[in-house]
Design brief:
Layout: H1 15-22, E1 29-32, H2 39-47, E2 53-58, H3 61-70, E3 78-82, H4 88-94, E4 100-106, H5 111-114, H6 141-147, H7 150-161, H8 166-176, H9 182-193, H10 204-214, H11 217-231, E5 232-242, H12 245-258, E6 279-281, H13 291-296, E7 304-310, H14 314-324, H15 327-332, H16 338-350
Parallel strand pairs: 1-2, 1-4, 2-3, 4-5
Antiparallel strand pairs: 5-7, 6-7
Helix pairs in contact: 7-8, 7-10, 8-9, 11-12, 14-16
The structure holds S-adenosylmethionine.
């Protein structure tokens, strides 16, 4: 297949809001953890020019190939890596790409993956039940469907799909096994719970649950968010766009927790957690697409954007600026390296 003949058909979501939330500036350094077809990446590179740099990560090798073609004009300022963002910190250390001005997560799947990619993500196209973002992953959706017990399936469909009819669906699946394709699974679910007029397709929630389980989406997101904080320079921005309530809840709780100091249970007489503030919330209320955007791009309807800014706690600032006298060097870059700060601090304490 000639990749240059592929027209990217994924429309990036909340583009203006993302650029604003990231506070993209010329010469800035950014990480796009979910490169996809490179739509957000292209606008970030455009607005950070001249001198901007972008590290793009995607677990799907096909996405990397497509984005590479799309971002060809910026090849001198981009580094595109086919990896899972759960390894974010290791990737940044390996390529010495930190600290950065902004990190973006635009979660979920691109339209390229959903629409007839043959990868089994959608019940609208017949394909083997695969759902892996990367062919290097071992477990497919078919493995889960055909080897889990009925109770395990029901639990998974309820937990990751928030499906009220999980037990009926699991029971029917187990009776119909082996199930090998997307249409076979969709029909089995429809037989189990029916399809009422005006409602979403009955297989929607089960497909979401399987995709989340196959790709360990929530575990990887949680791990990556924790790593992202220390890769952000002073006042660097963390921006996350999510598409379902499980993801959004995780992001909301993470940002809230990191924007608080002590997180000891209420009533604890003295702080024992030692937790320090590392983020400041940019938008207290979640940002959603306008009606016009939803009309132009229906896929955007469930998008929720949350953003926060890295702050360095007073202790760290005091040690570096006042005591160590490195302020000019560190401030010259406009922002500071948390890892460097820690090294300077321990050297100071040891002296
Ligand atoms: C919604 S799309 C991103 C679209 C992109 N912002 C654009 O404008 O074209 C999400 C992308 O994230 C990738 N992805 C999802 N989870 C990932 C993970 N844990 N590690 C790396 N990439 C991931 C998917 O393969 C997909 O290409």
């Amino acid at each position: 297949m000639n990749l240059t003949m592929l027209t990217p058909t994924h429309i990036p979501v909340l583009v203006r809001e993302t650029l604003e939330a990231l506070a993209v500036q010329p010469g800035g350094r950014y990480i796009d953890c979910t490169l996809g077809a490179g739509g957000h990446a292209a606008t970030i590179l455009e607005h950070s020019s001249p001198g901007g740099q972008l590290l793009g990560i995607d677990a799907d090798p096909e996405a990397i190939k497509i984005a590479r073609v799309r971002l060809e004009a910026y090849s001198g300022s981009t580094l595109l890596i086919n990896e899972n963002f759960t390894n974010l910190q290791a990737i940044c250390l390996k390529y010495d790409f930190f600290p950065v001005h902004g990190i973006l997560f635009d979660l979920g799947l691109s339209s390229l993956q959903l629409n007839g990619s043959g990868r089994g993500f959608s019940f609208r196209h017949d394909a083997p039940l695969d759902m892996r973002l990367s062919p290097s992953q071992e477990v497919t959706a078919a493995d889960i469907i055909n080897t889990s017990s009925e109770a395990e399936l029901a639990h998974l469909i309820r937990k990751y799909g928030e499906e009220g009819y999980s037990r009926q669906i699991a029971h029917r699946i187990v009776n119909q096994r082996p199930i090998k394709t997307t249409l076979q699974l969709a029909q089995t679910i429809e037989q189990a719970i029916g399809w009422r007029r005006g409602r979403i397709h009955p297989a929607t929630k089960t497909f979401q649950a399987l995709r989340i389980a196959v790709n360990q989406e929530l575990e990887h997101l949680e791990a990556a968010l924790k790593q992202a904080i220390n890769l952000l320079g002073f006042e660097g921005r963390l921006v996350v766009i999510s598409y379902h309530s499980l993801e959004d809840r995780l992001v909301k709780q993470f940002m809230r927790q990191e924007s608080r100091g002590c997180i000891c249970p209420p009533g604890t007489p003295t702080c024992v957690c030692g937790h320090t503030v590392s983020l400041r919330l940019i938008n207290k209320k979640v940002i959603t697409p306008s009606l016009v955007e939803v009309q132009l791009n229906p896929r955007s309807r469930s998008a929720k954007l949350r953003a926060a800014e890295r702050i360095i706690n007073q202790d760290e600032q005091y040690m570096t600026i006042e005591e160590l006298g490195f302020s000019t060097e560190i401030k010259a870059n406009g922002w500071r390296r948390p890892a460097l700060l820690r090294k300077l601090r321990s050297a100071f304490l040891a002296a």
